[in-house]
Amino acid sequence: MENFIAALEIARGQEDRGVSFVDGQYVPGIFDPSFLKLHPGNGKKILDTRFSSSSTVSSALEIARKAYETRIWRDVTPSEKRAILLQFSASIIQNSKRLATLDALEMGKTISDATQDAHVTAALITYYAESVDKWFSKKALTASNSLAYNSFEPRGVIGAIVPWNYPTCNAALKIGPSLVAGNSIVLKPSEHAYLSTLLLAELACEAGIPRGVLNVVTGRGETSGQQIARSSSCNMLTFTGSHRTGRQIMAYSAASNGKPMLMECGGKNASIVMPDMKDSIASLAERIAAESFANQGQLCVASSRALVHRDVADSLTEALHAAALTRLPADPLDSSSRFGTIVNGQERDRIRARIALAKEQGARCLVDTSPDVIRRAGSYLNPVVFDQVDPGSDLAQVEVFGPVLAITPFDSIDEAIAIANGTEYGLSATVWTNDFKSIRKYSSQLNVGKLQIRADVTSTSTHGFSLGSEPMGASGFGVEFGMDALNSYSRLMSVEITG
């Protein structure tokens, strides 16, 4: 209770300042009595929910447009931009406890995970700060009296809509490349977790980003989100969320000014386990469980399907069963907790409905102790593991976005690739094998934007943020991460000078 009371003070102090950040200052909002803001750890009320008014959203768009047209950020020198963004990153680290507390309180991730998120957020901003003077255009060969080159120009006003699962990280993933490219931004966080994003905007302004360049508005998707998506003041939309909402936003874009879009809309990601991993079963099961149940399974790249070669299926299934049982939901505000809650009761009930349907469709449920926690106040849900899941079943096809792992056996590489590709999504996949002769087959035939081929179960080495990628199918389109993300938030102009 002490942790909750302390977190509540931080949240109420943040909310009292305003629920929009426009033109460098907080703006009060309109009370929404129909939206209950409850802490998913105990079901207790956090705030009297207030959201941005329609006029505030309009004002944010107008101010962002003015900031872009007056070039107050666009014309800042690269070295100055770098210094400001690095100061922004340092401020995020300095305020990591506040940011983490707000996220843990609003959406139920553990305070330890939320603290790590704050550091990842700072690292993202640092990455793009350091990219400012490393992004080059191309010069064409011409006659001696001519000069022809490509120029990366900012798109203008970016409308950014981000989800609740990683509030600060998702915001930084839009903010970093947008600012380096010279744009202005109107960002709408989820109505379920927005306080940390407001604090991010304040820190950015304090670091030196000019007023009006980064604005944050709040509200429901069908109100504030739709208003941004329909606005002709926006020159581009960037969205992370469900594919159904993404397609609706595409319709809004088409109905307004046909603005370009970048969309990341989830996945049904597979971990493919080959039989040559038989000597690493216990540690491999722990890695797959970690990647399936991170953030309580509420992440787009969760390994929600384990495709396991039949030769190792029994042993790995048993080990995954044991790994799931070690992840017990606990108070997200307790620093010792390693598994938090679902964002709210409505989402928890939706996930439970998926679990019930999978049982009806014949999937064998190995782990489901969730009835033990369903009676607790809050939105707790234990990890759930299913075995012998039919590749065509609902559980294997639909993104659950919760702590539910589906295990499906296979007999050959070709069958595994066919099953992995057999959904409408195309976000990510992981292949666990020592057979590197098959790398080309996996990389050319798996229809995903992000592919990891691993043999070392103990290694946690990654490329960081350096490689961009683009999803396929229902997972969306457009490149995020890496230097290529800067191209996403820019338009390519050709310039030819003769004389």
Automatic annotation (TrEMBL):
<keyword id="KW-0560">Oxidoreductase</keyword>
<dbReference type="InterPro" id="IPR029510">
    <property type="entry name" value="Ald_DH_CS_GLU"/>
</dbReference>
<dbReference type="InterPro" id="IPR015590">
    <property type="entry name" value="Aldehyde_DH_dom"/>
</dbReference>
<feature type="domain" description="Aldehyde dehydrogenase">
    <location>
        <begin position="37"/>
        <end position="494"/>
    </location>
</feature>
<dbReference type="InterPro" id="IPR016161">
    <property type="entry name" value="Ald_DH/histidinol_DH"/>
</dbReference>
<feature type="active site">
    <location>
        <position position="264"/>
    </location>
</feature>
<dbReference type="Pfam" id="PF00171">
    <property type="entry name" value="Aldedh"/>
</dbReference>
<protein>
    <submittedName>
        <fullName>Aldehyde dehydrogenase family protein</fullName>
    </submittedName>
</protein>
<dbReference type="InterPro" id="IPR016162">
    <property type="entry name" value="Ald_DH_N"/>
</dbReference>
<dbReference type="InterPro" id="IPR016163">
    <property type="entry name" value="Ald_DH_C"/>
</dbReference>
<comment type="similarity">
    <text>Belongs to the aldehyde dehydrogenase family.</text>
</comment>
